[in-house]
């Protein structure tokens, strides 16, 4: 009887395809947590059991959700200190400096995999998972979880597809026409841009290669004992880091570029946006309903604090806002003195509800990809004030696509903002364009959440989806660039040249000897 019910349960489980999934999204920041929680939501909806390594544990509990608390990661990566507007303004935050970025992120990943709660999970031989989904943020150390649990690995990439992530499953993009994700340029590239982009790619590769001993030992120290405990041998870091089955990208063509992608890259941009938007709190709802001339929503995201904007810039912006007919809603962490009548401060903003309101006419944002995707989703034009990371590229693309303007954070910001706001609000082309891109964003075979669910179970069902793997990963780089052929041609040319010279000298000396003999004979 017991046996029969066990068999039935097993069969049912298989039929419904309920799996055990480990989600590794340990970056301590609201926007990264939103990405992780999006997976949690979709996977729980599908009936899977989810274990979520969470920097900001979710409040709502669910019988099939288990959270591994890594909130102490805020100490490892103090995002409030790193991502600070003052530091950005003083140019002290140079995230384009890869060496800093790669060092800091591998240290952070190392801290996470050695976190006591994480170690407790992987050291327990009774734990088992069908797949590991890990957010890639400049380090591949989390690939080790797939070795521990002997299951496929799915990468989640938070940005538009770029060379560093594509290199893990296929190969880097051609730098002649694909800007690096932290670059501040768009096509067409000048000659020097092209050289610069090529050099950035090579420099990054070399630096990653130089970090290999450091990362190898981090990998071995964190994962070796838990793999050995399970009676297996830990593969090398290099084998595992390039062994991802799939990459799910928080990207969409409506906000990115139409780059070519390998078969195991699947864009799911927009999956984090809940289909049912929570109603606005009544004070906000009233404010938005009453904004007869429209409302401008201003938020620098969850990592940056607007209060760190220098006081003279704040004053300048407030002066510009005070002259507008529109209502301005500014996500700001403290009360501002002498607030104009049409400007309202909120310390917390339900962004989706605000953007969804028909009176929201303009979104002033730092250009984080989640914000851009949400603006496209709801069809709201954008003014981007890029600060760090991929925000420059995101905002440049918005400008290029024609549904927004860019304003830089410097002493000119108030004047530039004034011009940009008037242009975007008065010229209908911005709204037209954002509606076009919104249509592109929504016109899909399936919702991004459904796509996410489908591919996760596809990878599990097909034991790591080996059929999707790019053959590019099997070929060494010098063969892809035909450097062996180039070498062969050079060597052949060199040898032929040498032989030719030899022949010529022989012929010449023969002729001169002939001549001397002739002369002697004469
Ligand atoms: C690579 O992934 C496949 C599919 O998940 C798995 O069977 C294989 O053991 C992995 N290899 C290594 C070295 O991790
Ligand atoms: C504000 O509205 C008034 C009256 O509707 C109009 O005359 C004025 O040009 C508007 N100002 C701006 C900055 O749009």
TrEMBL record:
- Reactions that this protein is recorded to catalyse: glucuronate acceptor + UDP-alpha-D-glucuronate = acceptor beta-D-glucuronoside + UDP + H(+)
Intracellular or extracellular location(s): Membrane
First-tier enzyme category under EC:
transferase
Q: Where are the transmembrane segments?
A: 485-510
Q: Which GO terms describe its cellular component?
A: membrane
UniProt-listed Pfam families: UDPGT (PF00201)
Membrane topology note:
Single-pass membrane protein
Q: Which GO terms describe its molecular function?
A: glucuronosyltransferase activity
Give the Enzyme Commission number.
2.4.1.17
Q: What is the predominant subcellular site recorded for this chain?
A: membrane
The Swiss-Prot or TrEMBL record describes its family as follows: Belongs to the UDP-glycosyltransferase family.
**Name of the molecule in the record:** UDP-glucuronosyltransferase
